[in-house]
């Protein structure tokens, strides 16, 4: 498979935290702050957007491993910025670093993520 995925690719996107993102809404906690899984979904969306133009249309990527530290709370209505960076590529495996900031540029969450490229025809 020929891709244009090279280490160093990066993308940042801004998101508003909604009621649907809250741990209390997702029933993972009673606190009215963004759930860690919601932050993971934001990060994965940014990565998928970034790599979509660099792989053949017959391929997609799937999540293989996630390591995240969720450091500070964010509430509904708060804006966050998610920045992802392609650290290295190993055959069909893609390794990313990511960080999510609040408006004050405090680190909300930081981590690493691995995705694997797969042919969509096989599913």
TrEMBL record:
The record's annotation in InterPro entries points to: FlK (IPR025540), FlK-like_dom (IPR054485), HotDog_dom_sf (IPR029069)
The residues forming a coiled coil are: none
Residues annotated as domain Fluoroacetyl-CoA-specific thioesterase-like = 18-120
> What superkingdom heads the lineage?
Bacteria
Question: What is the protein's given name?
Answer: Fluoroacetyl-CoA-specific thioesterase-like domain-containing protein
